[in-house]
Amino acid sequence: FLHAVFERLKQFLECSRSIRAENVCRDRLEKTIILFTKVLLDFLDQHPFSFTSLIQRSLEFAVSYVFTEAGEGIVFERFIVQCMNLIKMIVKNYAYKPSKNIEDSSPETLEAHKIKTAFFTYPTLMEICKRLVTHYFLLTEEELTMWEEDPEGFTVEETGGDSWKYSLRPCTEVLFIDVFHEYNQTLTPVLLEMVRGLQGSTNVEDTSAILIKDAVYNAIGLAAYELFDSVDFDQWFKNHLLAELQVSHNRYKPIRRRVIWLIGQWISVKFKSGLRPMLYEAIRNLLQDQDLVVSISKLLHLFYENMYPILYLYVESMFTLLFQLLQEVTQCDTKMHVLHVLSCVIERVNMQIRPYVGCLIQYLPLLWKQSEEHNMLRCAILTTLIHLVQGLGADSKNLYPFLLPVIQLSTDVSQPPHVYLLEDGLELWLVTLENSPYLTPELLSIFQNMSALLELSSENLKNCFKIINAYIFLSSSEFLQMYAADLCRSFCELLEDITTEGQVQVLKVVENVLKVNPIFGPQMFQSLLPLILKGILDGERYPVVMSTYLGIMGRVLLQNASFFSLFLSQMSRELSQELDQILSNLIEMWVDRMDNITQPERRKLSALALLSLLPSLNSVIQDKFCGIISISVEGLHDVMTEDPETGAYKDCMLISHFEEPIATEDEEPPTEQDKRKKMLALEDPVHTVSLQQFAYEKLKAQQELLGEQGFQALMETVDTEIVAQLQEFLQGF
């Protein structure tokens, strides 16, 4: 049956020669031809080995009609696309590619490969390559007219608009890439010979020659990775391409655009840093040509993504020109392209952008208003705002009259646009908080959106927790006074139905509250603490969750001992257990699961918290004394460093004064939140209390309480090796 398909297709194609294009029969005939070719493609896709006997016939048929005179006057675009797909699927088919070790290949694979090799001879490959480049790659009259009438629209469509992706051009380019990759050793000399014949500027009156050069340059760009060792692109750029960019005649526009695209293709393959200043100068001169906006934008984006130092020399002129373009262009997609490049520039130079952004800051509210029906453009505006806020730092507060309503709208799940804007809106909300010097009433009121966001339990939940933490670090008292009850309620619901990672995120918020507000924090989240204590006593099986549970309990025990006692009394009544029994089980589980805690800060916190139970006459605490000392010695091993000169030990986690965070050249500058965290560390026992001294003072107090003999008896319950290590750490006290 399938062999007969080719005969039927030939008959149909010959028949179409005598039927005019506008005739309804022609349309039906073309649909029938496409249906037959689809049968071949589907069979090849589903049964490649059964198709082996048809490889030769298929290639002869497709190549004959698409790449020789046989198809002239009868082929049509959809048929050409189908034939090219047929060739491509045979060339790329993994079933037809032998293993590196031939002996590992199946006979069917070797047979198919033999047929392919016999067909794709040098003359055949050369004809396919030349025909693709000099016939199918040529810009058509229709495309040139469209570009002349609507340069923005043409560039957007040509680089991926909906109608473009169903046309012939992308199909020809994909086929060229696949054939060139498969037979690059044969085709590289063919393509290089075509390039050599085109060196130097082309006569602007010779449209045919300009279109051929555009097509050949397109091929060189598509094959950039394959030509890495065969083309000295740096020399070509310096000696030829740079001059082509400087030809200003209007008819040379296709070549200028193609050269920009070509450089973009090669820039990540082979392009010396020393040539970048020349390229920047050339681009700067071309930026005023709206016909080239998208092409140049893409090239600049590639440069800025790689953080080339040369950017800093041109940031003012480039930013000014890009901003002018942003105002002048009318297509939504073009504005998005320019915004993306502006965002990239701002992101790369960060604070150094501040002198130049005034005009953009004034323009963005207008652009936001104009883009009410264009959510993707609004996403691009949000991205730009994210980088602007990061670049402006604390000065971003001057943007609040525009910025905060944008965040409000983007993160309000009752508003339809949130479907498009939420992810970027949350990111903008977060960076705004991180860079805010203080909490404003308007910034506080936006948090009303959070309750509904937490109910979504979506992939954006992680950013929601980061936002909550940012509010806590910014102004915990004002924030918690207004929202603690709602948060606690939301957290209780979340913890019942959330992943382990989600549980940890919730618990970290509670932990941060206790860090910032150790006195009132436990009361605000009191309804969560029973769940945490029960989790510890029940031996929570996930180490990362247990570690966070113990971190929270450690904060309460160390920094609010009176609340901890009341809490244990409450749990004694709730669990119908003796208070001492609960305390005994808690300490025992803490000691047993200490290895679950991997963060040095939490390990030191655990040691400080358990030591804070001393001095005590309580029989439970004395019974668990050995475990408390073991945890303390583990903590000392974690935090104590030996001075190489004096041999004395010191606690490496101690911070005695505020140091302005300094960013290295490769790091982003510190945010206002980074500074707040540094200040908070100055009040955190983990960073202000020496574990060495704390252990000494607590043991000394226990000794004084029990007397020498009683204390010695207590110490004898501890392993002698641990006692020896403890004594070494406490030398000098």
Task: Write a structural description.
- Its main location: cytoplasm.
- InterPro entries: ARM-like (IPR011989), ARM-type_fold (IPR016024), TPR_IPO7/11-like (IPR058669).
- With 733 residues, this protein is mainly alpha-helical.
- It has a domain at 530-730.
- Helix content is 69%, strand content 1%.
- The chain is built from 37 helices and two strands.
- Strands 1-2 form a two-stranded antiparallel sheet.
- Helix 20 packs across helix 21 (418-434).
- It is elongated, with a radius of gyration of 36 Å.
- It starts with a helix and ends with a helix.
- Mean pLDDT is 89; it is low at 160-166.
Structural class: mainly alpha
Q: What is the topology, as strand order, of the major beta sheet?
A: 1-2
Mean pLDDT: 89
Radius of gyration (CA) equals: 36 Å
- The poorly predicted ranges are 160-166
How many strands in all? 2
Helical stretch count?
A: 37
Keywords, separated by commas or semicolons:
single chain; 733 residues; mainly alpha; two-stranded antiparallel sheet
In short:
The protein is mostly helical and 733 residues long. It has helices spanning 2-16, 24-46, 55-67, 77-92, 107-119, 122-136, 141-149, 151-158, 168-182, 184-196, 207-222, 233-245, 253-266, 276-286, 293-305, 311-328, 332-349, 358-370, 375-392, 400-410, 418-434, 441-445, 450-456, 461-496, 500-516, 521-524, 529-537, 543-559, 561-575, 579-592, 600-611, 619-623, 625-639, 672-681, 685-688, 691-715, 720-729; strands at residues 640-642, 649-651. Strands 1-2 form a two-stranded antiparallel ribbon.
